[in-house]
Design brief:
about 280 residues, alpha/beta, Alpha-Beta Plaits, 2 domains, about 35% helix, binds iron/sulfur cluster
Length: about 280
């Protein structure tokens, strides 16, 4: 195990603030002289591999349990449909239930409710985990299949692999999904330090506040990264940082070079990312 192993979360309450840009650029900087694993846990819309120009290889499929019916045992009582909170079952007394598997989250309520044991478990393929490597960065990413409602199983599968592999690295960087739902919490749970990426807009401020409340409750060491710092009123973020007594570890102004990096599939290299690296190395 690496003695200095540190897990870093790059997160943000709001999508589109530049989390992936920061995560990939920090991975690139740290990998110049360290063993780095970058994990893209934004499974609804993974794009770190695109920003780094990584060709991904398939590692494993992710399955979710779903119910299946034995209509020979079904008494057509209609109870399974009544307990399904996602409306995945249409059941009318006197008729066989109709199941819409795309709406099922695998909660199991119908299986427990059935008085005839007519429902058992099957599974559906809901996503994939991939790996790759470039710029001395080892890379993992999870991806939820389009139309699937529950990202949690894909994130959990990815987290399992991160747990197994983390001890082989000096730094593990987890680019989380936006928001504060369970998969984000599960990813942040593993982190020693968290950077919340935001932008200077009222929506950015609002969503940053939500994420800072979360990382505060979780007791995580947190820094703020103010991206596109010159596009709005950065004072609103400075004030919020003061209220939470948290540092703004770096401000990244909007720049044409950063846009060019996106277009070319290359990590951004600016002195601002080195400011984040210095906080990580402390
Ligand atoms: S497992 Fe849950 S979500 Fe799926 S059909 Fe049954 S009750 Fe509905
Ligand atoms: S609860 Fe069981 S018995 Fe009743 S309709 Fe559903 S499957 Fe059939």
């Amino acid at each position: 195990m690496s003695v200095k192993m540190k897990i870093i979360g790059i997160t943000g309450g709001k999508g589109g603030t530049g989390k992936s840009t920061v995560a990939t650029a920090l991975a690139y900087e740290l990998a110049k002289d360290n063993k780095v694993l970058l994990a893209d846990a934004d499974v609804d819309c993974p794009n770190d591999h695109l920003l780094l120009g990584i060709e991904r290889e398939h590692v494993r499929k992710v399955w979710q349990r779903i119910p299946k019916w034995d209509f020979g045992k079904c008494s057509k009582c209609g109870r399974c449909g009544k307990v399904c909170k996602t409306n995945a079952i249409i059941s009318i007394e006197g008729r066989n239930p109709i199941f819409m598997k795309s709406q099922c989250n695998g909660c199991g309520a119908c299986v427990f409710e059935c008085p005839e044991n007519a429902i058992s478990w099957d599974k559906k393929d809901i996503g994939d985990v991939y790996k790759g490597s470039k710029y001395n960065i080892d890379f993992l990413s999870g991806e939820l299949k389009s139309g699937e409602p529950v990202s949690e199983f894909v994130v959990n599968s990815l987290n399992e692999i991160i747990h197994e592999r983390a001890p082989d690295y000096d730094y593990v960087i987890i680019d989380t999904a936006a928001g504060t739902h369970c998969p984000v919490i599960a990813a942040l749970e593993m982190c020693d330090i968290v950077f919340a990426v935001t932008e200077p807009t009222p929506l950015g401020r609002h969503d940053l506040e939500v994420i800072l409340l979360l990382t505060g409750k979780m007791g995580k060491k947190t820094g703020i990264v103010l991206n596109r710092s010159d596009i709005g009123n950065s004072e609103i973020i400075v004030k919020l940082a003061e209220e939470f007594a948290l540092p703004i570890v770096c401000e990244i102004p909007y720049s044409k070079e950063i846009v060019d990096s996106y277009v070319k599939g290359k990590p951004i290299t600016t002195e601002h990312i080195i400011e984040i690296k210095e906080v990580v190395l402390e």
